[in-house]
Amino acid sequence: MAVGAEQGRLGENGRSNAPSRDAGSSPCSSLKMFLGALSFAYFSKSLSGSYMKSTITQLERRFDIPSYLIGVIDGSFEVGNLLVIAFVSYFGAKLHRPKIIAIGCLLMSIGTFIIALPHFIIGRYEFETSVRWEINSTDSPAPCPKNSAAIVAQGSVLPGVPNTKCEGESNMSMWIYVLLGNVLRGIGETPVQPLGISYIDDFASQENAALYVGCVQTISVVGPVFGYLLGSMCAKIYVDIGFVNMETISIGPSDSRWVGAWWLGYLIAGVLTLLSAVPFWFLPRSLPVGQKGATRCTPEQTSFIKDSPLLENKYPADEPTGFLEMARDFIPTLRILLGNPIYLIYLCVTIIQLNSLIGMVTYKPKYIEQHFGQSASKANFLMGVVNIPAVALGMFSGGLCMKKLKLSLMGAAKFAFSTSLIGYFLSLFFFAMSCENAKVAGVTVPYDGMDVLLFDKPSAFTACNSDCVCSANDWDPVCGEDGITYVSPCLAGCTRSDGSGSNTVFAQCSCVGSAGNLTARTGQCLDREDCDRMFPYFLALSVITSFIISLGGTPGYMLLIRCIEPQLKSLALGFHALATRTLAGIPAPIYFGAIIDTTCLKWGQKRCGGIGACRIYNTAAYRTAYLGLTLSLRSASFLVCIPGFLLLRQQVRREQRNAVRGALANGGAEMEALGKDETADREAAVVPETKSVREPVVRDTEGSQPTAEHHSRDRETRL
């Protein structure tokens, strides 16, 4: 009897029909606790994801890697997601979903901590500099040594001689840890969205489910704002803060060698993600199924709805089905889905546009840094405070417009296309917002200061520094009094230095000025008035275009849902996510970074040899490559939209004709039925007595005997 009673408490698939006591609280409070935990998990994962993008330039400089490798690291998150998404989507729904989400958050936290690990094992950051580190030292080494003996006395390395400091260092690059940590983050993030949203949809009331999902999605938009703000804060702090004397640091946040405390943000994001896993361990596997139809979760409603026949198909996805049967059905179903030309064209359009969007967003902070001379901290701050809120407001406004205008399928397609097209034309103005290249002697301009570009034949050596034994590979820029940046004090021909740290002044520089023998100070010349005037206009146009383009996000997503059959909706959404992650999320950062690398003018050199991070770019080429690739992809997507509109118009007209035919057919059937009823009524009115005489004996459906009324009618007939 105990076993029977226990089985009576369990519904189909082992789900409890009785109030759950696992959480020690009421079903409503358990659902609200899950909603709060899921919102916090969404916030944590979106914060860490946006923080990863905000540290791109910091990681490049810290590990001396080019942009395409940063693209590989950024795309590794999608790789980790794709590795387990099929298993999590299928098996996760049959297991304890809150605990699966908790495990995912735990893995995300571990992956985030692994990303920060290299900072604690790689040693202190050493940037290229010829500035003295000893504050109280009376020695003033000559920036421009005249012979090799002077170089050896200063402890420097002769040009072309291998650096002995390489011996004993690990051959494995430290950025591998960042890559592996990001893959683990992608694996851990996989169950959060599908299992979390399905849990809410299963146990929330019909009218509250959409509201709860909307709240969670809103929180996921707030996370990137704080992620970029965290990136801005950490970029201001020197990477080895607390371990070095800041008075000895001769570079600032605007210097191309500056590396902020990138690791600090990952520790903060890791702690937040770890905390987000805690509540899920205390949530029940399932809540009472009656809560789906209850709005106030009262005991009366729960007991009333518990026996409702509408709950029979509540969990159709969990019905036992053989693996072979599912495998046999999968390929034909997928063939039917991909046989829908509108869905296929929509998939191609979104893949192309997401390539453009992901590549643009990934390298936008770097573009602001390199093109407009802004610091990494300011670029991240503007992304978090200005761009991300504009995108969120655009998505919300797009959904509101769709509701107010009551857009049809064709209306939603036209709305999404028009907003994207307007944003495209506005983006063309970015080409006009250009800045001149920084004047770097021997790289962009000759040593005489003439405005002649040297991109094709750069020459670091000239007559004014021919007496100095210098290395052309070093990047230790100084700003001369003539407003030109020199690659190093040695190449500027400076023979004396005064001061220490960032206050160092180089004197008797033979290459500075037309007459020579002028002074130079540490750091690159930052006086670019044209960029300072142009940057506010760039920022305003960026906000406007982000808002307009994001207006079509919600109508475009609704188009995806409406253009397919209802029974294929889940497969269509899943395949869409899989295709966009594989063909856009992974490759876009890689080839965008590779194309940006082709515009580099001066590469940094690793201590052990090899190309490091880029120090200065060709501004015009960078702008053309970055904006040109972004807009070219969007142009291609518009061309693919043309056959999509033609097919969509045909489908809409075909559905309208079918609806009219169906209405006419139904109307004819109703008229025919109505005519038959009228004829039957007239016949009944004309011969009522005859019909009563000829009426046979009526028996009930169970074969019972004739009633007393029937016997009475028989007697009247005989009389």
TrEMBL record:
Residue span(s) of domain Kazal-like: 458-513
Which part of the chain is the Major facilitator superfamily (MFS) profile domain?
A: 34-653
Subcellular localization(s) per the UniProt record: Cell membrane
> How is it placed in the membrane, per its record?
Multi-pass membrane protein
What Gene Ontology terms for biological process does this UniProt record contain?
monoatomic ion transport; sodium-independent organic anion transport
According to the record, the segments passing through the membrane are 65-88, 100-122, 209-230, 263-283, 343-361, 381-401, 413-433, 534-560, 572-596, 625-648
Pfam families referenced in this protein's UniProt entry, alphabetically: Kazal_2, OATP
Show the segment(s) annotated as Disordered. Answer: 1-24, 672-719
Give GO MF terms, alphabetically: sodium-independent organic anion transmembrane transporter activity
Query: NCBIfam families this protein is in?
Result: oat
Name the protein family. Belongs to the organo anion transporter (TC 2.A.60) family.
Official protein name in the record: Solute carrier organic anion transporter family member
Question: Which organism is this protein's natural source?
Answer: Gadus morhua
